[in-house]
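Need tokens for this chain, all 244 residues.
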Amino acid sequence: MATQTLVMPGEVLSGDILPIPSNRSVALKLGPGLRHIPPSTVTTTLAGPLCVDRKKNAVWVENNRGRYIPQPNDVVIASVHHSSTDWYHCAITPHTAFALLPQLAFEGATKKTRPQLTSGSLIYARILSASKHLDPEIVCYNPSTGKSEGMGELRGGMVFDVSLGMARRLLLNKQREEGGLVVLDELAGELAFEIAVGRNGKVWVKADGVKATLVVGKALQDTDRDALGVNEQKRLVKKLLRQT
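Here are the structure tokens for all 244 residues:
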């Protein structure tokens, strides 16, 4: 589980704060709000709680109100803006450059079998590379396995906006223990739905009908906006289900 310390922009992180992996060959993973200055200096670029996960050898600055900054290995929900000969140009956020998605960057894709995406198509993708000097590149498979693992075109459903912090919590393996979230478990007991969460603050939901989809989206947004605790999330879900 991650521990937290409040930091301000421009601080240099001391070595005793950074996680020490049990396996020295495992690289330190820097998330949003941090910058590496070679050879070994790490500075902060955002104000907020500094989160350190020693088990995963990861560190990042939590900032719910900041803009999303693309980071390698993040999963995101993007929309296709236009295409060129070999690329799809995709919007991740309104304020960042279009991300480049190779037209063959899908599991098993060939020129004959590649998805035919059009303007407005939604995709669930992983950021392969990103820097302030180059446009982000995204792919719809896990580079380590070559498998899609749920990534690709998202058909139907609706997209809801949540804070960056809420998106991170929804992506945790143990949402209740590590993120204080039970809202999805409570909803899943009563509704059948699919969900994809992007680290860029986008959540795609597809349920059996528009009303059910809206219930799931509203439950997530209300939990996020009102910072609801576990018991409050349970009451919210019961209330929303009674209204459907």
